[in-house]
Amino acid sequence: MHELASLAAIVAVALAATTAAVSLVGRALRVLEYALLSGAVVVILFVMVFVGAEVLMRYGFNAPIPGHLEGSELLLPIIVFLALSYTQATHRHVGMDLLLDVLPPGARRYAQMATLVVSLLTCSVLAYFSGKNAYQLWLYDDVTMTPPYFKTWPAAAAIPLGYALITLRMYLQILNLFDPARFPSHAPDDTLHAVE
After folding, report:
1. Which class for 24: exposed (0-12), middle (13-18), buried (19 or more C-beta within 10 A)?
2. What total of structural domains would you count in the chain?
3. Which letter, b or e, does each residue of 149-168 get, where b requires 16 or more Cβ atoms within 10 Å of its Cβ?
4. What would the pLDDT profile of 7-27 be if each residue is shown by its tens digit?
5. Is 193 inside a domain boundary?
6. Does residue 184 fall inside a structural domain?
7. What gap in Å lies between CA 152 and CA 142, rounded to an integer?
8. pTM score, whole prediction
9. d(C-alpha 112, C-alpha 95), whole Å
10. How many CB atoms lie within 10 A of CB 39?
11. Over the stretch 56-76, which tens digit does the pLDDT of each residue have?
12. Is residue 154 part of a domain?
């Protein structure tokens, strides 16, 4: 319980600092989201080539690539969590809006704010504990169980990074819903999606 109280204090201080420098934080987060999204795309392309090469080597030359399964599995959290904040910012996640759509605009705004507050608290707890786990994996120098013994901490480190950034993004969205004139959205342009 002491650990959660400490986490709550840290989150409160971080969010207060974000409120004080909302414009700077919003612009920096938008740039970081684009950079991490680009990184996730590069990793996706690498996994595609890597798995294709493994299939070719296994069935074409009867020489499978060692560690292909573990390597691909370790790259999945990197793909998902690097793009998580961008997905939240552009509202590209899967959501159930049926109830929200029937609410009047004022009630919809408060319902969205309440949902974001609960999500922010949940994601901040997940960021903290997944960060502790990634740090332990780094301290133990944890590797996969089979050769070539890939390090596991980079994949684990992507998880708290993604949760921390989505927490920050949700806080900016709460501020924007609270007072749109004072707190602009700072959401990334959604020009990367040509098909709606």
Report:
1. exposed
2. 1
3. ebebbebbbbbbbbbbbbbb
4. 889 888 988 888 888 888 889
5. no
6. no
7. 6
8. 0.89
9. 12
10. 15
11. 999 999 999 998 899 999 999
12. yes
Q: Is residue 173 a contact partner of residue 15, using CB atoms and an 8 Å limit?
A: no
Residue 22 domain boundaries: 2-178
Q: How many residues does the structure list for the chain?
A: 196
DSSP β-bridge partners for residue 151: 143
The full 3-state SS of the chain, as one line of letters, equals CHHHHHHHHHHHHHHHHHHHCHHHHHHHHHHHHHHHHHHHHHHHHHHHHHHHHHHHHHHHHCCCCCCHHHHHHHHHHHHHHHCHHHHHHCCCCCCCCHHHHHCCHHHHHHHHHHHHHHHHHHHHHHHHHHHHHHHHHHHHCCECCCCCCCECHHHHHHHHHHHHHHHHHHHHHHHHHHCCCCCCCCCCCCCCCCCC
Gyration radius (Cα) of the chain, Å: 20
- Quick check: is 142 in a domain? yes
